[in-house]
Amino acid sequence: MAENLNIRAVASWVEGRLPGLDRPVTVHRFQVGQSNPTFRIATPAGDYVLRRKPGGTLLKSAHAVEREFAVQRALWDTDVPVPRMHLLCEDPAVIGAPFYIMDHVAGRSFDDPRLPDQTPADRAAIIDSMGRTLAAIHSVDLTAVGLTDYGPGGDYYGRQIARWVKQYRASATEKIAEMEALIRWLEDHQPADDGRRTLVHGDYRIDNLLFAADGTDVVAVLDWELSTLGHPFADLAAVIMQWRMPPGPDGRGLAGVDRAAAGLPTDEAFVASYCKRTGLDGIPRFNFYLAFCFFRMAAILQGVKARGLSGNAANPKKAAKLGAYVPEFARQGLEAAITVTD
User: Which of 119, 135, 190, 200 is the most buried (most CB within 10 A)?
Assistant: First the structure.
């Protein structure tokens, strides 16, 4: 047993279908992330990663490890870098929750978009690779990879707003006036459906990517829990949303950073590069998508806070710290909203 993972039960279920798990192994739980508990399993035949649903009472449709497994398996051998998927266990009786096992991908992870230990040239290349990978996700041929039914069609923002309002209210611990105002604004100002329907990651940011150990290319896109078929601008706006937060270990943003001196692109340059890669002339009313992303992240962090209070978070102290940002995300969402013109 290693921090909530019964490796003997895992090995028994695998029954020799995965090399190395029938021998002595070591297990390490990753402490990053607040969603699905994740473990590195080192075996004589190579290293694997096991990702499982957390314990306790969960919100409906949350922590969907089954969907994570399905989308990453479909993306293997496309231009979107993902780990190789091996096995999915949907029986909660084995270790107490569904889980899947995938290859461990060696690489570097960054949780600070300032990339303080990199040169200006490498910072520019890392962010460019991040943008290139996002464009690749949105360019996936859904028919070719078998993902045409991975999400419902049409009215992406209507569905997402309704979903996250419901999730937010289910996990709310107090009334936040800015959040209520932002919800009302989004419900009243969502744009007409323009027909765009692509694979979307749902939580695209630098700390959900792995980069080459000796280079600047993205080698794996991780944490597909919120992925679906929907509108690609939500992923793009999520990147800009994160950059507008304060820098440091909590905000993990770029607010106030001299980007030119650091080798980092402006928001406008990053969006323009994305548009060039995807054949767009520009994105009208981009701030609607930005306001939506601030709202969705506020709802996600409220869920993190609630799990921390109930004892189901991977790191309860960090959950409380992240949950304290809910009012700030709501405030910035409203700030973005008032600049939108109809």
Answer: 200
